[in-house]
From TrEMBL:
One of its GO terms (molecular function) is guanyl-nucleotide exchange factor activity. Coiled coil: none annotated. Pfam families: RhoGEF, SH3_1, SOS1_NGEF_PH. This is ARHG4 factor.
Amino acid sequence: ITSAVAFDILPLKLHPFSQSTPTGLDCVGWKRHISFPVITDGTLDKTALTDDVGSEEDLYEDFRSSNHRYGHPGGGGEQLAINELISDGSVVYAEALWDHVTMDDQELGFKAGDVIEVMDATNKEWWWGRILDSEGWFPASFVRLRVNQDEPMEDYPLKVEGGKEDESSSGTRRFGMGQTTKDQMRTNVINEIISTERDYIKHLKDICEGYIKQCRKRADMFTEEQLKTIFGNIEDIYRCQKKFVKALEKKFNKDYPHLSEVGSCFLEYQTEFQIYSEYCNNHPNACLELSRLTKVNKYVYFFEACRLLQKMIDISLDGFLLTPVQKICKYPLQLAELLKYTNPQHRDFKDVEAALNAMKNVARLINERKRRLENIDKIAQWQSLIEDWEGEDVLVRSSELIYSGELTKISHPQAKSQQRMFFLFDHQLVCCKKDLLRRDILYYKSRINMDDMEILDVEDGKDKDFNISVKNAFKLHCRDTEEVHLFCAKKPEQKQRWLKAFENERRQVQLDQETGFSITEVQKKQAMLNASKQHHTGKPKAITRPYYDFLMRQKHPTLPTTLPQQQVFMLAEPKRKPSNFWQNISRLTPFRK
């Protein structure tokens, strides 16, 4: 095999130990170099997609036979430009957007944020790069080219003895009209933010007009419920982003981009960006629904026809629907880069600094809501294992397990004591009893509404209300009925953990009220239905694997087919504290075997 042929083969080698997070696509706005015939009114003729044998296939083949292809990441003029720079001796750097974990010695592993020297970009999907002394192939879609290629590898600006900036690296280097190197770097970042926003708007428009509009014309193929599942609230996102990009353009200084003050735009829209939470939470459901539909050729041909009529790049619908998830995760990265090149004296500095924190908080909120929605399935499964359950489901009022453990409950009259297992959720405390013979079986006994309760710390000694001596005790007192519940822990540290847990429960309830977090009735019913099915079959329900598999089947880029390291909408920063939901339950509450 010649070296030229080998070069084309090696990058596409799939290795069973390669395991990374797919980005799907990050390529909106790539130039289309080929014109394409469009139906006059820009819509699909309903008769052209009838159920007659061969009609949809013929339409699809007509489009394919015209051999229209559009640019995608690493292709077209952009890819040629990268290779020209490399062949001219220039050093081209790319920044890792996602972790690429691999055990293949031919691939280059890295973490999000690492800077990679691109040494060859001839192949569309796999590039050859270097980090320090390591070289290897890596997926082109996992990185983005650095906005400022002329920036030194060290943190900019360089420092000299005495803590002052090296003038040779910053202040004395100027680029026309009195711009310093740092100003030019800021110009590059501002231009990228404006450019990518405009491309993103075009991308959202293509989805709304190219797919949703056409799907609504085919009531025989799609119900409104299906469309809501597939596309989520992407139309709301489109409307929000159109307003946002207009606000950005008003703040954009065309003559001197480095003087633009865009930080205030992000601060103004930080609350509206929370609509991405609903979209990100729904995205796995969208992938599963698409997976089900695309098993039928009729839907495959329909979606492809929609894409071609709208002149969209050669990526499947699930890939297009991934971009809003990526976009909200990319804002903190862009703002961090913008802050890096904004002088503290710049009028935009404080706003950019505040905007970076605000967008990190938005991302944190989205991740937290995603985690909470994942928890409702676990809560439903837990309830399905409790015997003799009475009253409403836990999910009617709660969505988070705060703490759980064993306590002694003392009740009136005669100060009767009972050993019970307690589960503290937001809004309620559930009491269960262990089976005398089978200690892994729990029976439902009662629950306490935490919204009406105040927590009272009880000193060791004789309690006046119950007329008994207590140790490691606390009370729950109902403000309305004056009802009092007395609890005793085995150890002082266990008591303190319970008191802290009650504080956390109130804090969680208040935070949910402030952020407007809620779970829909459909989500609650679905979680209980899934738990019921799993309880009867006794088999674990594979919830996330189809979602991963579906992501891995995207047309571009071709990625290793093993499981990814993490879901794409989990940001590299800030890293959230892992949920202790299952640790609480598995440690303190054995389940039915």
